[in-house]
């Protein structure tokens, strides 16, 4: 179950409950094998190209379109690549990283992504906060992408 809350034009916040432990959710966000299976909306498959899980380490994920059912700011027929640097890693509670599109995405500059995991009602509540989005249009576009990604994470966790 997800719900979105817009706190400001430049900030997107989504909440989602998963009926698994925080450790399982944290591992899904920090395992290359897991990310390759669930990251991104249903309209894309993802391939982790770089993943240095340490503060100051870099990551890069390529998303390849598999359907035309998506709202992409770039060319919907080309791969999109997001990348950034890990700012904070606190297992199993919190991940903070910079986030930017380096190929076929919105020209939005460096943004900040925070994933928080809280024990709650027989599972884990995840709060995803994406800050420094330059305008309402990009906030809404990322809301759809992250919402789809959190749903794909739910399916992955149920299957594993």
Can you tag this structure with a few keywords?
160 residues, alpha+beta, Alpha-D-Glucose-1,6-Bisphosphate, Chain A, domain 4, 3 helices, 8 strands, disordered N terminus
Major sheet summary line: 8 strands, antiparallel
Q: What are the low-pLDDT stretches, counting only 5+ consecutive residues below 50?
A: 1-7, 70-75
Query: Helical amount among residues, as a percent range?
Result: 25-40%
Q: Could you tell me the radius of gyration in angstroms?
A: 15 Å
* N→C terminal distance: 19 Å
Number of domains: 1
Coarse shape:
globular
Overall residue-averaged pLDDT value: 89
Number of helices: 3
> Which percent band covers the strand fraction?
35-45%
What order do the strands of the largest sheet run in, or round the barrel if closed?
1-2-8-7-6-5-4-3
The strand count comes to: 8
